[in-house]
Amino acid sequence: MGTIAIIAAVILGISFMTFVAFFGRLPALRNTPISFLHRLIWIHLPNGVLTVDRTLTNGRLTTSLTRLGRHLWYDQHPTILIFFFLLLSVGEYLYLPVAWPHFSFTHKFFGTIAILCPYIFLYLSAFTDPGVINAKTHVREMARYPYDFTLFHPGTSCETCRLLKPARSKHCSICKKCVGRMDHHCIFINNCVGANNQRWFILLLLSTAILTLYGGVLGLVIIRAKIQARFPYWTLMPWWTSTQAWNSGDLDFHRWLLLWSWGLQSGVAMGGVTLLALLTTPLVWGLLGYHLWLVYCGTTTNESMKWQDWQAEMDEGGVYKRRMAADGSREKDLKVEPAWTRWPVEAEQIMVRTEDGKPPRSSHRLPGEGEWEAVWRLKDVENLYDIGFWDNLVDVFLPYFMFKESKGRSPVDEREFGRERGRSRRRSS
């Protein structure tokens, strides 16, 4: 009982800490206990340790730990990728010798597929170019999405890469590169999740979620069969099935837990992996569900934070929008934005924030036409990049799909674009 309790406690603790680390910064969880724990673990506790260390060692310990932590969190290295690979392979090494003889042919067939898929998608996620933007790919990435004049405005340059930033792109401080349709940098794949590898990342989450659920349930069935072979009156959930032993008091909760512990300890390796699979399954499915929700909404992790920043601005007042040319006749500045993109729609609005809380003055020469309208809710703002769940999926899984024809035009005027790129480099120098 003690061994199993320790294993379960460790697995639960790791799963919970991973959940807090992943989800604690999400805008949707602001001002919640999860957000508080995230700040406590990553901000307040380190500050407390720093204060104590300054008193005891004049800060030498925390300086070394900070240097190590900065390398682990902010430099590109395969440590967590290797850990994830070993977690899969060692878990299967401990689980399969005990469980495999109990599998039917059907489970052996589908189990083999379930085991192999995470490795395939892990490789594709980690080693596929996520959509790095450089001099060779810049024109192509500029033609991927139009600017929405809400989250992304033309004319913004990356001071590090010295290139005009395409819509939906972001510079990764870990990879030291700009990435098209940047979602986030994932330490488990040692790579950014961007336009070109997001499909493999989603399939990695899906295959891992299926593997943990499938392996956990099969392990549970095998353990249940072992226990029932010796104690026929034992059931997995007697309080739901209302067995005679449970109703008569012969199988109370303490004895049920004792027999469950006996079943796990009869094959500790497989039992421990089964517990690990069952307890981490909700976390993996939760991550998968979150990313599918982002696809459904036509946004990314990076953009969802930008939307929440807009909501915070709206709460304070001073956010205004007005329509762009309804017929798409807006004259584009080809020095800083593409003449056309593969995207089926163009920006229909521009949204800005003012310092004084009043509508922008006409002298500001902002694009758009008509009167400025105050905005208080995100649902009153059109998301240019949400074109319906099916087309959003097409965009993720076919990243170069042409939603509209180019009609033989170049997306950018290379002469004008080249001059502006040169000016951008000089400004960044």
TrEMBL record:
It comes from Neurospora hispaniola. Belongs to the DHHC palmitoyltransferase family. This is Palmitoyltransferase. It is found in: Membrane. The keyword Cytoplasm does not apply. It is an enzyme of class 2 (transferase). The DHHC domain is required for palmitoyltransferase activity. The lineage of its organism: Eukaryota, Fungi, Dikarya, Ascomycota, Pezizomycotina. GO terms for biological process: protein targeting to membrane. Signal peptide: none annotated. Its main location: membrane. Residues 155-308 form the Palmitoyltransferase DHHC domain. Keywords: Acyltransferase, Lipoprotein, Membrane, Palmitate, Transferase, Transmembrane, Transmembrane helix. Its EC number is 2.3.1.225. One of its GO terms (cellular component) is endoplasmic reticulum. Residues 408-429 are annotated as: Disordered. GO terms for molecular function: protein-cysteine S-palmitoyltransferase activity.
